[in-house]
Amino acid sequence: MTRRTLAAVTLLGCLGIAPAPAAAYRFLGDGWIVTSDSAIRWDPFPLRFRILENDNLPDDIGLDASAWREVITRGASRWVEIPTATIDIEIAPEPATLDQADADDGVNTIGFSSDPVFEDSWFTGFAAFRWDDDGGGYIGCDIEINPDFVKNWSPQDPVRLLEIVVIHEIGHCLGLAHSEPHPMPLWTEDPFEAEPSFLPDPVMSYSNSYGLDLTEDDMTAVSLLYPAPGFLDSRGSVAGRVDLDGRPAPFAYVQAVRPGAEGARAGPGPGAFADENGEFLLEGLGPGDWILWVHPMLVVRRNAHGSRLDFSVAEGVLEANDRWRWITVEAGAGLSGVEITLRRGRGEG
Amino acid sequence: MRSPIALAVAGLSVALTGCGAGGASAPSASVPAPPTAPAPEPSTCGGILFAEVLDSGGRPFSVGEVVLQAHPETSLEIVRPYTVVVPDGGDNLDVPGLRPTVGAFFSDFGFGRFPAGGIHQRVRVQWRGTLELRAEAPECPPFTVTCTAERCVSR
Predict the structure, then answer these.
(1) Is residue B68 scored above 70 in pLDDT?
(2) ipTM over 0.95 threshold
(3) Any CB–CB contact under 8 A between B119 and chain A?
(4) Which residue on chain A is closest to B134 by alpha carbon?
(5) How far is CA B1 from the centre of its chain?
């Protein structure tokens, strides 16, 4: 058995905005961009966690072991209760010791970290996961939360923020990588008629607008990995290519937005990155009309998107203007050959 | 083998016509937008881009309404504004410096599709400075609308 290890670091609320009420999905696995059929997933369920027992509980927010267990249980239930997915997560009654937060012991843990990497750090937590490189899926996942997050983030509602972090990290353990926030930064401007359906951003994105409820993007992503009966037949997909000035636009982001057709509320649905060749496959779209709102990668943090960001910078994709394109999706069908051409100009004038 | 990978816009308005409807107009009196009434079926290219600056009530944002009625393969480019709003979060985390993020805020989406497949998209938009949108469709000339806080102009 060949195993590989990866850790996803979480940096929530990184622009200093209070955690207002934590769209886009990206799967984990080999390659720049992974589609749902080749993504790493947890199999078989249940995904069972043991809670780390140590002295790192941030008691300055009134969190004891019992309250912490409740936070974790609530966070896990957000994923388990998705109606379009079949997910089973257990929080074991027995605790785990710190030495069991190990990459290879087969025990999945969640708790407050003793890792010095968190000292004076803005990181809120990470998930370290292992998978069988021979196609066997996940082997284990350990989640460590920064015990200093209250000091570093000064959240107005730290327990709520903590639950959001738990939801996010469990998302990694289920096979989701960092996604993108929606295309309008409603958390940095103050338009007086903001479209409420664009808030909050996906819990798996780096953003400053998180909610306890999972967004459509989050739910679509795990439903593609762990579909409830009938889900896949009820959805369609769109594939195509994004160009910039005649060249591929690597890692351009394709965000599906409901255009406000009669009977279908406007708002963001799922989204996906184009690959290194500018080719995209956006799965899990409900039938009907959509706007594909194509834009550059918005999150310019390397620990969100790794070298994909550097690749986008090198190819000038971050300079591309936003563009909308309308499509119609049918259930159980794939729309292909959608060509979208971007132009540079972002930031000029 | 184990391999660590990563730690990881009440003012003037303008009606713009596309190639099938006879070319662009100069700024005109306000043309009422048909958000719910049936609109005429567009020609091959389609292309009526309606943009109107509305009363923003003294707020720092301009506010308006844009209606695109066009060829089904039309795409709409947000040419501007972009605002620089994303701060640098640390030398070892980010691309150095700030970067622009779209500065047009859309709401009140209303969409319809014509029997021939053309699209009708109405949307309310708020912006600071100048709004510029450009619509393009295959084998059709592009049409652009530019809106300041006072009016919209086509070109």
Answers:
(1) yes
(2) no
(3) yes
(4) A323
(5) 52
